[in-house]
Amino acid sequence: MKKITLSIITMFIISSSYSQDSKVYFGASMGYTYPGGDFSSSQDLKQGIHFGLMDAGYRFSEKYGAAINFSASLQISEKYEEDVFFTLSYWGIGPTYTLDIGEKFSWYIKPQLALGLKAAVNRDTETTNDDIRWKGSGVILGNAFMLGDISRRWRYSFNVDLFTGKFKESEINDVTVDLNQNNKFSRLILSVGARYNF
Question: How far is CA 135 from each of CA 12, 68, 90, 119, 126, rounded to the nearest angstrom?
Fold first, then answer.
């Protein structure tokens, strides 16, 4: 995965050096995540904070492009005797389609595969020290409503993402178990962000 990420970022940088137009962008976002699905219910997950830590993209034309991003979220799980933090992270990669609506508004559509999907809970109390981890995969239907003049360097977005997937295995204190039930999840992610066009 690291090789794929480095290759894509390198492609963005090299391509931008030969282009006079603004085709490469980097950005970040922050918002809320709303859990759903059997897995979320089994862990008694509450809504949490979503961080779009890295969002990079390249436009091959006015309409089509590609994007890669790294995201993470932090939620509370009330399944256990004490409330614990549930963390989730993943890489998203896929094509993009841009629908320009006027000079200051665009609808940015990006279906993605969620790669390297990982989640974790750490219970560290006086009586328990359990380190629980999950691995899986998913798909994301991403929507970004971009505000700001298309010709400007900075643009701002309101993002609505629907994320569905499933966890395939769990690891509890270094013991791995395959998951066959209560492993599907969904989440609605609402966030705001900013991007810089190079």
Answer: 29, 20, 10, 7, 27
Closest C-alpha to 119, from 183, 68, 32, 28: 183
Write down the pTM of the prediction: 0.83
Return all residues near 158 (Cβ < 8 A) that are at least 6 apart: 144, 145, 147, 190, 191, 192
**Helix-then-strand count for the chain, H and E:** 2, 9
> Count of residues for the chain?
198
Please identify, in words, the CATH class of the domain defined by 2-197: mainly beta
The contacts found for 141-145 with CB under 8 angstroms, 24 or more apart, are 141/111, 142/92, 142/109, 142/110, 142/111, 142/112, 143/107, 143/108, 143/109, 143/110, 144/107, 144/108, 144/110, 144/193, 145/105, 145/106, 145/107, 145/108
* Amino acid symbol at 34: Y
Residues 186, 37: contact at Cβ < 8 Å?
Answer: yes
Position 21 pLDDT exceeds 70? no
Burial 140-172 (b: 16+ CB within 10 A, else e): bebebebebebeeeebebebebebebbbeebee
pLDDT tens string 118-164: 999 987 766 667 788 999 999 999 999 999 876 678 999 999 999 99
